[in-house]
Amino acid sequence: MTVRPGRIAVHIALILYTILALGPIFLILINAFKTRRAIFADPLGLPNAQTLTTIGFDRVFANSDFGLYFFNSMTVTVVSLVLIVLIGAMAAWALTEYRFRGNTLLSLYLAIGIMVPIRLGSVSILRMMVELNLVNTLTALILVYVAQGLPLAILILGEFIQQIPKDLRDAARCDGVSEYRIFFSIILPLISPAIATVAVFTMVPVWNDLWFPLILAPGDGKQTITLGVQQFIGQYVTDWNAVLASLTLAIAPVLVLYLLFSRYLVRGLTAGAVK
Amino acid sequence: MTDLTASSVQSTDVVPARSRFPIHIAVFLAPALAIYTLFSIYPLIDTIRLSLYAGDETGARSFVGLQNFETLLMDPNWSGQFWNALTNNLIFFAIHMVVQNGIGLGLAMLLSLPRLTGGSVYRTLIFLPTMLSVVIIGFIWQLILNPLWGIAPSLLKAVGLGGLFGPWLGQESTALLTVSLISVWQFVGIPMMLIYAALLNIPDDLLDAATVDGAGPFSVFWFVRLPLILPTLGVVSILTFVANFNAFDLIYAIKGALAGPNFSTDILGTFFYRTFFGFQLQVGSPTMGAAVATAMLIIILIGILIYLFGVQRRLQRHTF
Fold it and tell me: pTM of this prediction?
């Protein structure tokens, strides 16, 4: 099969854009491992025997609690995701499976949160968290993120639950199985493929968010990694080794996870779009 | 849909009183409704309520009606900043609509070409920046565009455009454009993916039929594919609108809460933050902050209504 010249042009365009998309990230990663002199003398060069150093990372670990921030982000993201999936699936199940008064109205009410950003309620959220004594706790962040993630999760999970064959639950009902057991033993295990889609839309924004950590948990060692990096760079702005190293530490875990799971993430995103 | 539902089965053998709301439905719904209402809907409503109050130094609040909004729109100390932020936000949005969604559409067209080798690799890699935190992206570009490091001017020189370089993030005339393009660079993956998925959904028969009828590639795009993906372009537009009028992180990371130089990158999100928390000499005001948030809410709702009743309806009539 001969390659048409048009195809070559397409590939050149796509390769150029890919370089534009990845170049800046690559540049940060390679320079994080170089000496200050090499960062300025040869920014595009890969680190070699003379220029390789981890001094930036040493300084980051000596001067900040990166491990702790990472742990905070992990806790907030994982707990939020588990709650969103569990609580969201319960609500999605109730709204798609049962017909009752106010069903449509409730669905509409829950849909408000898909479009209206919860951030605009920050003044009241902060007041509430102060009253509940939850400022500078991870609980405050988790509660807000669950409220923020639920509407879209309910929509996605609802569409997914509708596709599960009705025979399964009807058979269970004939056997006198309770509605709770039908949900927890039959439906919940079946929705696991939809979790990837929900994860794309809820985990990434939660992990990357700056606004709520800045407002609700800016101190007391409860910073998330995004806020931690922001505060660290604010202090060490002239220390290029440390700045590049802290950026690399923030990028690396997301990069690894993305490359491992990108297939599911991309599929989730395109599947969500089709609906 | 209308077959025997659980509630009717249940109510005959478990729940004795038929008129009562089935308890298991309430149990399934309660946690979601409670958290969502308490931490999402209530704060939004309470924010609107707070915007009608004014607080003094002692912390006492009194009802002032629409006075906060009058201050925001008329008082010379406030209105200049508000209109500046709104104008900048509109420019920010316009740049996203044209550049981000334009490039996204172009990339999606290329990626949806039949039998393209390596398509999923391109998609995965081009989408990568979208996954990273806006804060991280902001710092990355701040370093790259930093004249001290000099990597941007030397790269430009390599392609013969060395004379164009300037401290883009530091100049009042170019800062907003530069910040917008950084955001475009990061989020181009989202329109690309959504439009790509829509293009894949177009049945091949339609395209084949058009080709057989003698339509060239350009006419196929313009008269067959574009009309069919218009609903997706509508979704992309409203998502861009809401995200842009709610943006904050990038400007805060690159320029701080003051959105310099001289407020030239100030958008509604940073204006809201400054009003709420205060900066330098100005004391933060929760009630004025609530007024700014309410104004943002109104702007976003107007956008959503235009989309729902203007764009989406017309598009559906157009395509089906």
Answer: 0.88
